[in-house]
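Researcher: Re-running this chain for the archive, since the previous output was lost when a drive failed. Same request as before.
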Amino acid sequence: MPKPSHDESKDPLTVTPPKRWAAGVPAVAHALEYSLEQTSPVRAGTTLLTMNQVGGIDCPGCAWPDPAPGHRHRNEYCENGAKHINDEATSRRITAGFFRDHPVSDLARRSDMWLNHQGRLTEPVVKWPGSDTYEPISWNDAVGLLAGELTSLDSPDEAVFYTSGRASNEAAFVLQLFARAFGTNNLPDCSNMCHESSGFALHETLGTGKGTVSLEDLHHADLIFLVGQNPATNHPRQLSALEQAKRNGARVIAVNPLPEAGLLRFKNPQQINGVVGHGVQIADRFLHIRCGGDLALFQGLNRLLLEAEDERPGGVLDHDFIRTHTSGFEDFSRHARTIDFGDVLTATGLTREEIEKVRDDVLRSERVIVCWAMGVTQHKHGVATIREIVNFLMLRGNLGRAGAGACPVRGHSNVQGDRTMGIWERMPDSFLDALREEFGFDPARAHGLDSVNAIKAMREGRVKVFLALAGNFVRAAPDSAVTEEALRSCRLTAHISTKLNRSHTVCGRTALILPTLGRTERDFQAGGEQFVTVENSMSEVHVSRGRLKPASKLLLSEVAILCRLAHRTLGTEPKIPWDAFEADYGAIRDRISRIVPGLHDFNRRVARPGGIRLPNPVNEGVYPTPAGKALFTCNDFDMPRVPEGHLLLQTLRSHDQWNTIPYTPNDRYRGIHGSRRVVLVNRADVTDLGLTEGQHVDLVSVWTDGSERRAADFRVVTYPTTRGCAAAYYPETNVLVPLDSVADTSNQPTSKSIVVRLEPVRPEPVRHPPSP
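Model: Regenerated structure tokens:
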């Protein structure tokens, strides 16, 4: 990989103590500062005052749900949401002259932050074979070029159609329909790399891959677990929901290797005590767990609950729920009692007393919710961990009733909606049958390629065309050098994008950038002004309507690009009305209403304030598993094994970052300023390893097959991580994760459990001029 022209390892690093609280007045100030750096006060005001309001712009950031209509604050957004929406609404523009001045070889040396800060893409461009420069191309020629490459393939399976969670429901539905009419299920998406383990575990145990709780449930829980997540940075509006829950008497248990600011205390800038007071304590109990110890924690808790039932028969477990709604309890009970508590303590780094206190919190609680994010899913045993969480919830009947349930917290605006619309390489036959009945063609039934397998197929020459609907695939994927090699092996790569990112610098033989409208912009088609819909983490589908003038007259919407491509590629067979879909997105929603359960009468119902809450069978007491019941599972004990002299590294975001894109080189809550190439290490580990604060080290990941990968020149920062564990920012550290290091069953990359050694960087020798 070319080195960035801007060497961030040489930036002036300043380290201050990590914050003990999140949000407050500084969050407002930073949000406004970044927004006004990007665009005018008028445009920033338009986006912020309509954001997450009924009929307004849905935040293109995280997927946290909005309060019910009538209960939303006038400023219903967070610091990072404000930054994200105005990063899209920026007044900066990239024109053809930019690409003449910056060939691909130059762009490849630039940092992710620099690329993003250049502004909005404004016209389609192409890089021809042998060229080092993107040049303008008409939409007609761009669509024709891509369609021609697709139709020339020997098999539809030589194409891959990738989707990011930024895409709308309408665009996602059109893309999967096009791919399946073309003849392939190669539909990888960003879920493959973030919450795939959640989907597999929940499908297996409950028969549905989605969470079971609503925002109202969270407000009225007695006990809430926050496991492997950092709300203040990744979904900050969750803190407002937790504040409400605390007011209603809930207790919160935070489980994390780092004492993140948002897990400790929240100062709500929309409340007086968040401005001049101390705010609200979030975590009543903080479990400073070792990376990858969550499976062992819930296995230990489940054993303690079973033993408490032995002591008080009928007083601990919900036997009515277990008998009526579950299967496999006896096998689970026998297995759970074999878990060795010494192993639990080793894996978690906790004391038995700490875990017993959590058990006592559980026994005092009637309604329990477990929330989790990528700190749980991105481990080899991620699926097993979530299955064990489901076991824990079922023991006391904490499923299918108010104030209780399973809550996987999605990190991207419409990633859950993409799946509802059919963006998955292994959609069930019921969905494919519905497509056949509606559109008159029989979709392929063989499972397609997920993200990891798509990279392998590209590298091996089995995939020749890669099309991405939004996202930054190169920087989201693991094993950076291998991923880049794979993309460069393609005949053609094409990206439907709003802004420049690293993926545009990693080109197939021919490369296209197809600029599209952002969610903030008004979308006029032949049928008039359009709106799109999105689905949040809690299965609510609602309208998003752009309010800004488009960044360029040459932009097309995602739907328009895909419909034109489909029409050009497939012609009139099968008989799908691509032109009608482009003209009026309501025509797409009419078809969706006949295919997706719960979205009947889609156009009328979604127009109501608050939209549609999709049904969850668990909340109706229905479990669509083969047994017709929720399944207890027996999960083998597992934990990451770390050799002497090594640490277990997790990758994470900085606070001033959204997904793969850093907005600044700072991480305010963790006290890191001026550089991202840092590794956070417990002070005792720094001493034991013979290192010093600020020392330059290479991060070298080591794997059971003997292979190693290196991320060069990071600086050591002492930090209150769990002993034996370390942390560093992605995407800079994605290079450390091999393509084959994936979670069992889900094939999700294991970015939270990387065994590394910290290798001191040798200073370059002083070179003296030759003697005369």
